Amino acid sequence: MLKTGDPFLLAGALAALQSQAKISIHLGGRSALELNGIAQYLQLASSTSTLFAPGKTKLPFWFTNNKWDVDYQLFRTTLFNSETVGLVNYQEGGISMQISSPGRAMLECLSLCPNKFSLTEAYELMEGISTLRPKQVQQLLEECKSVKTTRLFLYFAERIGHSWYKYIDKTKINLGSGNRSLASNGVLIPEYNLVLPKELS
Protein backbone atom coordinates (compact mmCIF):
# COMPACT_ATOMS: atom_id res chain seq x y z
CA MET A 1 0.00 0.00 0.00
CA LEU A 2 1.29 3.47 -0.89
CA LYS A 3 0.03 6.91 -0.08
CA THR A 4 -0.24 9.41 -2.92
CA GLY A 5 3.19 10.82 -3.57
CA ASP A 6 5.07 8.06 -1.75
CA PRO A 7 8.05 6.75 -3.73
CA PHE A 8 8.23 3.22 -5.08
CA LEU A 9 10.97 1.57 -3.04
CA LEU A 10 13.64 -0.36 -4.92
CA ALA A 11 14.27 -2.40 -1.76
CA GLY A 12 10.62 -3.48 -1.72
CA ALA A 13 10.79 -4.46 -5.37
CA LEU A 14 13.91 -6.55 -4.79
CA ALA A 15 12.29 -8.24 -1.81
CA ALA A 16 9.24 -9.10 -3.93
CA LEU A 17 11.36 -10.44 -6.78
CA GLN A 18 13.34 -12.62 -4.39
CA SER A 19 10.60 -13.95 -2.11
CA GLN A 20 7.54 -13.99 -4.36
CA ALA A 21 8.78 -14.27 -7.94
CA LYS A 22 11.78 -16.45 -6.90
CA ILE A 23 14.03 -14.49 -9.23
CA SER A 24 17.78 -14.45 -8.55
CA ILE A 25 18.60 -10.76 -8.26
CA HIS A 26 20.27 -8.93 -5.40
CA LEU A 27 21.97 -5.72 -4.34
CA GLY A 28 25.72 -6.25 -4.38
CA GLY A 29 29.11 -4.76 -5.20
CA ARG A 30 29.82 -1.27 -3.85
CA SER A 31 26.19 -0.79 -2.77
CA ALA A 32 26.35 -3.84 -0.50
CA LEU A 33 29.66 -2.64 0.94
CA GLU A 34 28.02 0.71 1.71
CA LEU A 35 25.17 -1.03 3.56
CA ASN A 36 27.77 -3.00 5.51
CA GLY A 37 29.51 0.26 6.49
CA ILE A 38 32.67 -0.43 4.51
CA ALA A 39 32.55 2.13 1.70
CA GLN A 40 31.37 5.10 3.78
CA TYR A 41 34.80 6.53 4.48
CA LEU A 42 35.82 6.72 0.82
CA GLN A 43 33.52 9.00 -1.10
CA LEU A 44 29.98 10.20 -0.84
CA ALA A 45 27.54 7.32 -1.04
CA SER A 46 26.71 6.36 -4.59
CA SER A 47 23.35 7.60 -5.81
CA THR A 48 22.97 4.48 -7.95
CA SER A 49 22.33 1.03 -6.51
CA THR A 50 24.34 -1.83 -7.96
CA LEU A 51 22.32 -4.96 -8.75
CA PHE A 52 23.50 -8.36 -9.89
CA ALA A 53 21.60 -11.16 -11.61
CA PRO A 54 22.67 -14.30 -13.51
CA GLY A 55 23.26 -13.73 -17.21
CA LYS A 56 19.95 -15.04 -18.57
CA THR A 57 17.67 -13.72 -15.83
CA LYS A 58 14.38 -12.32 -17.16
CA LEU A 59 12.94 -9.46 -15.13
CA PRO A 60 9.22 -8.60 -15.18
CA PHE A 61 7.92 -5.53 -16.99
CA TRP A 62 6.67 -3.91 -13.78
CA PHE A 63 10.23 -3.84 -12.45
CA THR A 64 12.12 -2.65 -15.50
CA ASN A 65 9.58 0.04 -16.40
CA ASN A 66 8.90 1.58 -12.99
CA LYS A 67 10.58 4.65 -11.57
CA TRP A 68 12.05 3.66 -8.21
CA ASP A 69 13.20 5.84 -5.31
CA VAL A 70 16.83 5.29 -6.37
CA ASP A 71 18.40 4.61 -9.75
CA TYR A 72 20.03 1.26 -10.31
CA GLN A 73 22.61 -0.32 -12.57
CA LEU A 74 22.14 -4.00 -13.33
CA PHE A 75 25.06 -6.29 -14.10
CA ARG A 76 24.12 -9.61 -15.64
CA THR A 77 26.87 -12.06 -14.75
CA THR A 78 27.21 -15.61 -13.52
CA LEU A 79 30.20 -15.08 -11.27
CA PHE A 80 29.76 -18.06 -8.92
CA ASN A 81 28.91 -21.73 -9.37
CA SER A 82 26.26 -21.28 -6.69
CA GLU A 83 23.92 -18.33 -7.13
CA THR A 84 23.32 -18.05 -3.37
CA VAL A 85 26.85 -18.35 -1.98
CA GLY A 86 27.74 -15.33 0.14
CA LEU A 87 24.25 -13.83 0.23
CA VAL A 88 22.99 -12.58 3.61
CA ASN A 89 19.68 -11.27 4.94
CA TYR A 90 19.32 -7.51 5.34
CA GLN A 91 16.51 -5.52 6.95
CA GLU A 92 15.60 -2.05 5.75
CA GLY A 93 12.54 -0.20 7.00
CA GLY A 94 10.66 -3.41 7.70
CA ILE A 95 11.66 -4.89 4.34
CA SER A 96 13.75 -8.06 4.35
CA MET A 97 15.88 -8.93 1.36
CA GLN A 98 19.11 -10.68 0.48
CA ILE A 99 22.25 -8.72 -0.34
CA SER A 100 25.89 -9.66 -0.86
CA SER A 101 28.06 -10.23 2.19
CA PRO A 102 31.23 -8.08 2.29
CA GLY A 103 33.34 -10.88 0.79
CA ARG A 104 30.98 -11.55 -2.10
CA ALA A 105 30.44 -7.81 -2.68
CA MET A 106 34.20 -7.29 -2.93
CA LEU A 107 34.51 -10.08 -5.50
CA GLU A 108 31.66 -8.51 -7.47
CA CYS A 109 33.51 -5.18 -7.53
CA LEU A 110 36.71 -6.85 -8.68
CA SER A 111 34.88 -8.74 -11.41
CA LEU A 112 33.98 -5.38 -12.98
CA CYS A 113 37.59 -4.12 -13.00
CA PRO A 114 39.09 -2.38 -14.84
CA ASN A 115 36.50 -1.34 -17.45
CA LYS A 116 33.40 -0.87 -15.28
CA PHE A 117 35.01 -0.29 -11.88
CA SER A 118 38.22 1.48 -10.88
CA LEU A 119 41.10 -0.74 -9.76
CA THR A 120 42.23 1.99 -7.37
CA GLU A 121 38.81 2.27 -5.76
CA ALA A 122 38.57 -1.52 -5.53
CA TYR A 123 41.91 -1.58 -3.69
CA GLU A 124 40.73 1.11 -1.27
CA LEU A 125 37.55 -0.85 -0.61
CA MET A 126 39.60 -4.00 -0.08
CA GLU A 127 41.50 -2.22 2.70
CA GLY A 128 38.21 -1.95 4.62
CA ILE A 129 37.34 -5.65 4.72
CA SER A 130 39.71 -6.68 7.49
CA THR A 131 37.33 -8.82 9.54
CA LEU A 132 36.28 -11.48 7.04
CA ARG A 133 36.05 -15.08 8.20
CA PRO A 134 38.63 -17.28 6.42
CA LYS A 135 36.21 -20.20 6.00
CA GLN A 136 33.67 -17.98 4.23
CA VAL A 137 36.36 -16.39 2.04
CA GLN A 138 37.66 -19.84 1.11
CA GLN A 139 34.19 -20.95 0.01
CA LEU A 140 33.64 -17.80 -2.06
CA LEU A 141 36.98 -18.15 -3.83
CA GLU A 142 36.40 -21.84 -4.58
CA GLU A 143 32.96 -21.03 -6.01
CA CYS A 144 34.15 -18.03 -8.06
CA LYS A 145 34.28 -18.74 -11.80
CA SER A 146 36.44 -15.74 -12.76
CA VAL A 147 40.19 -16.37 -12.65
CA LYS A 148 40.95 -12.66 -12.95
CA THR A 149 38.69 -11.89 -9.99
CA THR A 150 40.13 -14.51 -7.64
CA ARG A 151 43.71 -13.51 -8.50
CA LEU A 152 42.97 -9.84 -7.85
CA PHE A 153 41.26 -10.62 -4.55
CA LEU A 154 44.18 -12.71 -3.29
CA TYR A 155 46.85 -10.28 -4.48
CA PHE A 156 45.15 -7.27 -2.92
CA ALA A 157 44.58 -9.15 0.35
CA GLU A 158 48.24 -10.18 0.50
CA ARG A 159 49.51 -6.70 -0.42
CA ILE A 160 47.32 -5.07 2.24
CA GLY A 161 48.28 -7.67 4.83
CA HIS A 162 44.85 -8.82 5.99
CA SER A 163 45.18 -11.27 8.88
CA TRP A 164 42.72 -13.73 7.33
CA TYR A 165 44.77 -14.10 4.16
CA LYS A 166 47.24 -16.57 5.69
CA TYR A 167 44.44 -19.05 6.34
CA ILE A 168 43.38 -19.30 2.68
CA ASP A 169 44.33 -22.54 0.90
CA LYS A 170 45.17 -21.42 -2.62
CA THR A 171 45.69 -25.01 -3.81
CA LYS A 172 41.89 -25.48 -3.74
CA ILE A 173 41.19 -22.36 -5.82
CA ASN A 174 41.14 -22.29 -9.61
CA LEU A 175 43.71 -19.64 -10.54
CA GLY A 176 43.99 -20.70 -14.16
CA SER A 177 47.09 -20.17 -16.28
CA GLY A 178 48.59 -17.39 -18.38
CA ASN A 179 48.73 -13.67 -17.69
CA ARG A 180 45.73 -11.39 -17.21
CA SER A 181 46.50 -7.83 -18.30
CA LEU A 182 44.44 -5.14 -16.57
CA ALA A 183 46.56 -2.14 -17.54
CA SER A 184 48.43 -1.00 -20.63
CA ASN A 185 52.13 -0.52 -19.94
CA GLY A 186 51.55 -2.07 -16.52
CA VAL A 187 53.79 -4.12 -14.24
CA LEU A 188 53.66 -7.92 -14.11
CA ILE A 189 52.99 -9.47 -10.69
CA PRO A 190 54.66 -12.87 -11.29
CA GLU A 191 53.04 -14.79 -8.40
CA TYR A 192 49.54 -13.98 -9.65
CA ASN A 193 50.23 -13.51 -13.38
CA LEU A 194 48.55 -10.11 -13.27
CA VAL A 195 49.60 -7.01 -15.19
CA LEU A 196 48.54 -4.03 -13.08
CA PRO A 197 49.15 -0.28 -12.95
CA LYS A 198 52.52 0.59 -11.44
CA GLU A 199 50.94 2.18 -8.36
CA LEU A 200 49.32 -1.16 -7.46
CA SER A 201 52.37 -3.31 -8.15
Account of the protein in words:
This protein has helices at residues 10-19, 29-35, 61-64, 102-111, 119-127, 134-143, 147-160; strands at residues 26-27, 48-53, 71-76, 87-92, 95-100, 180-181, 187-189, 194-196. It is of the alpha/beta class and 201 residues long. The chain has one domain. The strands form three sheets. A three-stranded mixed sheet has the order 1-2-3.
> Looking at the chains present, what oligomeric state does this protein adopt?
single chain
- Unreliable segments of 5+ consecutive residues: 1-5
Got a strand count?
Answer: 8
Strand order of the largest sheet: 1-2-3
Distance between the termini: 53 Å
SSE arrangement, N to C: HEHEHEEEHHHHEEE
Structural class assignment: alpha/beta
Number of helices: 7
- Strand % is 15-25%
Shape: globular
The percent range for helix content is 25-40%
